[in-house]
Specification:
- The longest helix is centred in the last third of the chain and has 36 residues, at about 160-195.
- Strands 4-9-8-6 form a 4-stranded mixed β-sheet, sandwiched between helices. Strands 2-1-3 form a 3-stranded antiparallel β-sheet, covered by helices on one side. Strands 5-7 form a two-stranded antiparallel ribbon.
- Strand 8 (about 125-135) and strand 9 (about 135-145) form a beta hairpin.
- The chain contains 6 helices and 9 strands.
- The chain is α+β, with helices and mostly antiparallel strands and about 230 residues long.
- The N and C termini lie far apart (about 155 Å).
- Helices cover about 55% and strands about 20% of the residues.
- It has 4 domains: about 1-70, Ribosomal Protein L9, domain 1 (3-Layer(aba) Sandwich); about 75-160, Ribosomal protein L9, C-terminal domain (Ribosomal Protein L9, domain 2, Roll); about 160-195; about 195-230.
Amino acid sequence: MEVILLERVEKLGNLGEIVTVKPGYARNYLLPSGRALRSSKANLARFEAERAGLEKLNEDKKAEAQGRADGMSGHQFIVIRQASETGNLYGSVSTRDVVDALGEEGFKVGRSQIELENPIKELGLHEIRVILHPEVSVTVTANIARSADEAELQAQGKSIAELRAEEDAAEAAEFDVRSLFDEDADIREEILKDDKPAAASDDEGDDAEDEPKRGKKDLRDTGDEEYADAD
C-alpha cells in the first residue's frame, strides 16, 4: 500500500514522501495515528494545499520535543527488583515499568515512545532510547537494583560482579576477626590452666592428715617424761 507521510517516520521517510508499506502497518499504525494518508490524487492535492501548515506544525512539535529532551537526556532512574545472587531478575522490567518509573519522576511518555526490544532481565545499568519526536530522541538509563544502596553503588560504576566480590571480601574479613577472637580465647584458657596450682597428691594428703596426730603424740610423750622426772 502507498501512503503519503504527514511527518517524518524513522526508517521509512520524511514529510511529504510517498512510500510503500504493508497494509497492516498502514491500517493499524500510520493512518489511525495521523502520520500518513492513503496515496491518491485527491489526498495528494490535499497535502500540497496543507503542506505549509503541516511543516509549521512539525517544527513546533519538534521544538517542544527538544525542550523536553534537554531535561531528560542522560537521566538515570532507579527500579528496585528482586534478583538472584548472579544478578538475574525474578521477573523482568517491561516497557510499562519504564513508562511508570519515568512518570513518577515527572517525565510523561507513552509506551510507543520507549524503544525496548526485549524486557530487561538482569540487574545493572541499562540504556533505553526514548523517541520524543520523529526527529528528536534521548537516551535514559534504567538502574535496576535490589536496593537503593546497591543502586547507588551501581551508579558509581560498580558492576554486580564487583559488588559480589566486595561482599565476599567483607564476609571473609569478618570470619578472620571472629577466628582471631576465638584463638585469643583459647590462648587465655591455656594460660589460666597452666597457672592453676596442681592438686595435692594422695601421699601429701596423708602426711597432712598425720601431722597433727604426730604432734599430739609428741606432746604426750614429753608430758610422760616430765611426770617421770617429777616422781
